[in-house]
Structure formats: structure tokens, C-alpha cells
Amino acid sequence: MMLKKILMGLVFVLLLAAAASAANEEGKVISGGKLLITKVDAKVDGKNDKGLNFGEKISKEAKPGSDVEFTIEVKNNYTNDESEITDIQITVIIEGIDDGDDMDEDAKEFDLDGGDDDKETVKFKIPMEVDEDTFNVLIEVEGDGPNSTEGNQKVEYEVDLEIQKEDNDVSFTRNSVSPAEFSCQRSGQLALGLINLGTDDEDVVVLETTSAELGIGFKDEFELTNDPFDADSKFSKTYSFKVPDDVAAGTYTIDSMVTYNDGTDTKPASASILVTDCEKLSRPAEETQEEEPVVVVQPPQVTTPTVSVVPAQPSAPAASTEEKSLLDNGLFVGLLIAAEVVVVIIIVALVVMMMRKKAE
Predict the structure, then answer these.
(1) Structure-model confidence comparison of residues 298 and 358, the more confident one
(2) 356 — phi, psi (to 5°)?
(3) What percentage of the chain reaches a pLDDT higher than 70?
(4) How many Cβ atoms are within 10 Å of 165's Cβ, its own excluded?
(5) Is residue 319 situated within a structural domain?
(6) What is the mean pLDDT of the chain?
């Protein structure tokens, strides 16, 4: 009797496991049960891993800066063509990959008639700053059922993504020159950036930048830690330089090289600039010199007295008379004064005579 119970228990457990496995093959149903995930493919840096099982780890490891894609096939499991599931949204979440924060991307919404399926692709760019670890990838698919009774349809799927890093890996994050073209203005700047992507600290990192033709030569030595989220795992600097005036027109390369891992590993980078002839505007030699200003001397103005011409009588010859003010004539003024004196004398004489007559 006891053996029979044990056997029945084992059968029940096996049936539950089979049911769970079957459910997981089409995702973990959260609600509804008619919206299913029928297939999940992954691609890491161009390498495919198709038909991933629920909870399976992607065979290709990613690294900092990797391109990762997930293609999800979804099915409307209604048998009736009119049982449409609308506004289906696929969301892929890489949990905790961004310094403990999630990265998530959505596919465009779509609708599915009963019995139909469709697939969408969601793309990620793995951050340069990332820990070496295995991260859970949660795929959520949700849509609206054909009626209020079967309204929300939701299903989930999970796979694992492993991030693997090299022991020693220092890479350029920036290598840009400004301006890209030099003509009359010959001053420029070169911006360089580095990050330690490896799992080991780099105690001695040497960065050299050279261009013999442009007379450029820079060198820096520094340390980089292995913590991707630590500021000391990165290096950035902007170098100023000047293109010599005697450098001919053409394209020139500025080469940079980083050496690390105790001097055994190197990585190059280069930037190009274009030098063109400087065409300055100059005045021609034969240009007329500036003329001195011409001074115009005005002759003094002479006031001409007003002259009236009186026509002569027919019997007499023509004569001209010049009109002048009598006050301007000295003789006239003298006569006038003399007349006034005479008048005064006469008045005085008259007064004296009258006084004498009264006295008599």
C-alpha cells in the first residue's frame, strides 16, 4: 500500500514537471493564457543562438561594447480568426547590468488575429562600463484580449546573458581632432580618451601621440583601476598643437599608441587632418597711393557799394551819379556841426539881449 502511494506521488511530480516544462516552452503565462511566446533567438556580435529554452544561457558570451539582439516570436492562441489580440507590446529587460540599474528596450506595437503569429527584434548595445557577470534577461509580452472577460494577456520569458572580460584590455573611447581642416588658422586640439575594460589593474599605462610631419609629440604615463564604474579606470586629455606654416597642403595623420600590461600589450589609434593653402587678400603693388586732400582757397569777398544809374534828359549827355550816405561824407558832417554851433550862439545871444532889455 505504501509502495503504491509512493509510485502515485512520483507520477504526480513527473506530471507537474512535464506540465511546467510545457508551459515554460511557450513562456510563463501571467494572465490570459492565449498570448504565447513560441520562440526566442539571440545574437551576440553577429553569432546566433536560436531556439533558446526558458532559463537557458546564451551560448555566446558578450563583452563591453557588444551588440546583442533578441528576436521574439509571439502567437495568438485563439482558434477563432475574429479573436484578435491588440496593442501587443514586447519589452526586453537586462536586469542590473548598468551599475545595478536595468537596461530595457521596446519593440513596436502590433496586433494578432486568432491563430496568427509574428516576431519582433529588440537590439542592445552593452555599455563599456560593465561588470563581468551573468545577467538575467526578462522578456515581457502583453496585449489586450478580444473582450473584457479575457482583457489582459501577458506572458514572460527568461534567458541568461553572460558578460566576459579579458584580464588586460585598455581601449580608446575617444580620438578626435578639431578642426578637421586647417588653412590660415593653424591651431588645433586632439582629444583622447581611454578606459580599462580588463579585470586586472593596470599599474603602468603609457600613451604616446606623434606626427613627424606636423611636429607633434606627446607622452603621458598613468595608472588605471579595474573597476569600470570608478573614475580612476578612465583617462582623458585634450592636447593643443599648431600646424607649422611651412607644412604643404595635404592630408596628415596623427598616430596614438597606448601600451599596457607591463609593456606587453599595445593598441593604436589614428586621426587625420586636412591642410589647405592659406589665401590671404592683399592689395596690388600698383594700387594708386592715397591722394593728399586738395585745399581750395576762396578769394576774399569785396563789398561793392550800391550804384544807381539815373537816365539823362534827352537834351543833356548821359551822366552817372554815385549814391552815398551823407553821414559817410566828412564835409557834410563838419558843416552840420558848424550849423549847430551857430544856432547855439544865436540862442545865447538872444537870451543875453532879452536879459539886458529887462534890466533897462
Answers:
(1) 358
(2) -65, -40
(3) 78
(4) 21
(5) no
(6) 84
Q: What is the CATH number of the domain that holds 260?
A: 2.60.40.10
Give the type of residue at 330. Answer: G
In a domain, 331, yes or no: no
Residue 330: predicted pLDDT: 65
Domains of the chain: total: 2
The whole-number average pLDDT for the span 171-186 is: 96
Same domain, 153 and 177: no
d(CA 229, CA 208): 25
Mean pLDDT of the 148-173 span: 94
Enter the C-alpha cell of residue 40: 526566442
* CA torsion through residues 24, 30, 33, 37, sign: negative
**Hey, which of 14-23, 57-66, 140-149 has the most confident mean pLDDT?**
57-66
Q: Which domain holds residue 183?
A: 170-275
The SS3 assignment for 97 reads: strand
Asked if residue 108 belongs to a domain, the reply is yes
Q: Is 10 exposed, middle or buried (0-12, 13-18, 19+ CB in 10 A)?
A: exposed
pLDDT value, residue 29:
93
pLDDT at 310: 41
| CB atoms near residue 116 (< 10 Å) | 14
Q: Which of 234, 255, 275 is the last residue of a domain?
A: 275
Least confident span in 85-94, 100-109, 278-287, 288-297: 288-297
Q: Which residues, in sequence order, are CB contacts of 97 under 8 Å at separation 6+?
A: 103, 126, 127, 130, 135, 161, 163
Q: How does DSSP classify residue 62?
A: B
Q: Are 53 and 154 within one domain?
A: yes
- Single out the residue in 256, 275, 294 at which a domain terminates: 275
Hey, is 16 helix, strand or coil? Answer: helix
Q: How far apart are alpha carbons 264 and 153 in whole angstroms?
A: 57
Residues 6+ apart with CB under 8 A from 178: 188, 189, 191
- Within-domain flag for 188: yes
DSSP letter, residue 313: P
Contact 40, 71 (CB under 8 A): yes
44: domain CATH number is 2.70.50.60
162: nearest Cα among 59, 316, 31 = 59
